[in-house]
Amino acid sequence: MARRSAPPNAGPAYYGAPTQRRQLNDPNESAFSRFMREEVWAAEKLPGNVNIVTGLALFFGGIFAIRTWGDQMITV
């Protein structure tokens, strides 16, 4: 019985080929808006960015809470 296998140079079958992302080339786009589109709002980078924002919110929220109610936390 003949062995059935993938064609030559097919690569492993357990992952898919990377999807091609269509780049937008708008000549009127500023560097800031291009940075926001490629680094902040990009789907593959969004979970990491949400983690960073959550950490910063907790950090600055803690500073705000201690400065506002810190004297009430000290027992005399």
Automatic annotation (TrEMBL):
Alphabetic keyword roster: Membrane, Transmembrane, Transmembrane helix
TM stretches of this protein: 50-70
Chain segments carrying region Disordered: 1-25
Top-level taxon of the source organism: Eukaryota
Start-end of Low complexity biased regions: 1-18
Protein name: High light inducible protein
Higher taxonomy: Eukaryota, Fungi, Dikarya, Basidiomycota, Agaricomycotina
